[in-house]
Amino acid sequence: MTQNALAIIVLAAGQGTRMKSRLPKVLHPIGGRTLVGHVLATASRLGAETVEVVVRHERDQVVAALASEHPDAVIVDQDEIPGTGRAVQVALDALPSGFDGDVLVLSGDVPLLEEETLQGLVDAHRAAAAAATVLSAIVDDPTGYGRIIRDEAGDVARIVEQKDADDAEKATREINAGVYVFRAGLLRAELAQVTTDNAQGEMYLTTVIGLLREHDQKVAVEIAADTAATFGINDRIQLAEAARTLNDRIVRRWQREGVSIQDPATTWIDDDVTLAPDVTILPNTHILRASTVATGAVIGPDTTLVSTEVGEDAEVRRSEATLAVIGARATVGPFSYLRAGTTLGEGGKIGAYVETKNAQIGDDSKVPHLSYVGDATVGRGVNLGASTITANYDDVNKHRTEIGDEVHTGSHTVLVAPVRLGAGAKTGAGAVVRKDVPAGALAMSVAPQRNIEGWVQKNRAGTAAADAARADSAE
């Protein structure tokens, strides 16, 4: 294996007690991915020979999530010896035999570092022929972070953790970002000398920096241009701040690609979303997971799309859709709920207060308002009257409804599945359809109307209705 080979080690073994959560810290999500998922997504673009993730606390949860997000990552278990130094040591032992390239160490709770920053760090490390290169940042308040301590020549002398720093060292504003590049052979040798003799009783990876200097090895530092991107996530406040920073970055990226975002402050877009030029996003809109929106579509206001596909020039207003497909020039909303498996054809309409689920609705078909369409196939050119319901559940099983092309239903129609309406069929208002309707037939289920004269005056005497009826009858 060449000396220019790169291995990446992602540290994800920490407990994250300040999150106060049943969920491991590195699995908290921002921008549609877990924290460690963002780190691994960036790492995967750096051309490494191998990417390892070191796990310990809540190991099974973390491994299960990684299997879903990044199945190619190599899982390495840290033992009972605590500390980042020990985590890297066991990861080095798990590298392919004979690996003697560079090792990039990342933290699973630092999700905002971009590919350019990390590639620049690796390139600077190699150009300087350094034994180690540290990513640092200059901050106004360094509380809680390890400090970069430089010597009189301005070179790195050592890194001191907050709990081990004296007052002068605590005043230093240059912090350790927890990201390093090492030459693998030198890193192995120095880690063998690291002990747990410190305030926290841990094997610090940062101790290696001081040891390398003591052994006259070159240690370089790269100061990050984007300070905020170097911050780790330790509590819910920092999680929210990181989510906002990431979202601002995503919004600006799409604006540069020709997407109109009317109110960036209230628009949230996940990292895996795809938007075409000339999409318009109105305020209070969330476009999440792997959603895609085609040219000319208008989304919002007050809309949430989750893993939903929206076609060209479609409009979705004040509605929610999950795992749905909305065709070109279709309209959805306001106040619609498209559940998983909904497909709305080109030019179709799902209107106000409509819920759909596992429903395939054909081109130019309309479900205008106050309806439920579930487990149904709806043909082309269909118009379902107000309050049309597909009664798909019999308390035991779900059943499908099939509606042919150009079917029109009257208001308050109930289609009791399993049932089929042939092409061109119609239903009368209030119909309860329990049997198949042939093509072109009219289905009705109405009893003759019976009027009982004087019922209100007799049974509701003294009410306003009785008085009004009496007065009207006298005219």
TrEMBL record:
Binding of acetyl-CoA, residues: 386, 392-393, 411, 429
UniProt enzyme class: transferase
Binding site for UDP-N-acetyl-alpha-D-glucosamine: 11-14, 25, 78, 83-84, 107-109, 146, 161, 176, 234, 339, 357, 372, 383
Note accompanying the cofactor annotation: Binds 1 Mg(2+) ion per subunit.
Major site of localization recorded for this protein: cytoplasm
Reaction(s) catalysed by this chain's protein: N-acetyl-alpha-D-glucosamine 1-phosphate + UTP + H(+) = UDP-N-acetyl-alpha-D-glucosamine + diphosphate; alpha-D-glucosamine 1-phosphate + acetyl-CoA = N-acetyl-alpha-D-glucosamine 1-phosphate + CoA + H(+)
EC number: 2.7.7.23, 2.3.1.157
Gene3D superfamilies (alphabetical): Hexapeptide repeat proteins, Spore Coat Polysaccharide Biosynthesis Protein SpsA, Chain A
Complex and partners: Homotrimer.
Family assignment from sequence similarity: In the N-terminal section; belongs to the N-acetylglucosamine-1-phosphate uridyltransferase family.
Name the UniProt record assigns to this protein: Bifunctional protein GlmU
UniProt source species: Microbacterium azadirachtae
Lineage, opening ranks: Bacteria, Bacillati, Actinomycetota, Actinomycetes, Micrococcales
